[in-house]
Amino acid sequence: MRSLDTAAAAELTSVAAELLADHGAATSPELLADLPGACARLSEEVHDALRPVDTADGLFVLRGLRPDDAELGPTPGHWSTVGDAGALWDVILLLVSTSMGTPIAWEGQQDGRFVHNIVPSPGHESAQTGASSSVLLTPHTEDAFHPGRAHLLLLCCMRNHDHIATTAASIRRTTLADGDIEQLRRPVVPILPDDAYEQAQRFSGRPAPVPTLFDTPDGLTMRFDPAYTPLDEADGTWRAAYRRLEEELARVSVAVSLEPGDVLVVDNDVVVHGRVPFDARYDGTDRWLKRASARVEGRPTRPPAEHDEHGYGQAARTPWAV
Ligand SMILES: [Fe+2]
Questions:
Q1: Structural domain span for residue 307
Q2: Average pLDDT, integer, range 222-249
Q3: How far is the CA of 43 from the centre of ligand 1 (A)?
Q4: CATH number of the domain that 229 lies in?
Q5: Ligand 1: centre distance to CA 205 (Å)
Q6: Cα gap 163→204, rounded to integer Å
Q7: Which pLDDT tens digit goes with each residue over 263-299?
Q8: Residue 149 C-alpha to ligand 1 middle, in angstroms?
Q9: Quick check: is 322 in a domain?
Q10: Ligand 1 centre from 81 Cα, in Å?
Q11: What distance in angstroms lies between residue 130's CA and the mean position of ligand 1's atoms?
């Protein structure tokens, strides 16, 4: 847990409000272009609270920001009907992301927005995407199918009346036999695009196998999404190692119940995240998160061979050239 004191929270909120007033919309390209300059003007106190993840847990919760529940309006029933609801929080999340790296967006997801809205949606209750509710959202690396996936995932809580937990498990907290690690370093099966990417799922190129674990000077990193991995195609020894990894991740998993204004920052190379099942209310008071993703260039957390992957025809966009 990291706390933003009242003054630091007020500073971050007022910088975001100014940017929004200057540019009119959180999706404005000019606003996105202004983010690095605005970040550079933030005080030392705010910068210190927004430093990257620096523990083996691979995550932290930034607490101290306070949304006005009435101002937010009702929780939308689908990401596509959010419009500019909670736009101030989009900008706050973009400032936090820009302090730690470069925000990214995907043309094939949520209209190419840099900040996504995670709300339960009728008809998607049992999907393996953020729109689901009644099923466990299986622990996964965000956008695991893609070599341009985020290094950091940020979830900002707008509303969570039922204290629905986000789950997180760090590979650095697991205990695995050397033989299992050896197996999981091998590229054996691919990770396919998830259901949030219809276009990528129609990609005609051949899926390439990818390693699950990778060794770095700081410890293991992981690329993991069992719901979208054709495990049946793997040999028995590898499958057994994968199953033990799943068990270890379940053992070390922590449940984080986010409160309004909390920003959960997850190291997407070290931690897999998920969500417990819940009953959606569909009455405008449902759990509502905003999600941003950021890349941190030059991070030595991934195998160099990833550069040659096709990414199923999807490209990550950045608001400025990096
Ligand atoms: Fe996710």
A1: 2-317
A2: 97
A3: 31
A4: 3.60.130.10
A5: 24
A6: 41
A7: 999 999 999 999 999 999 999 999 999 999 999 988 9
A8: 11
A9: no
A10: 20
A11: 7
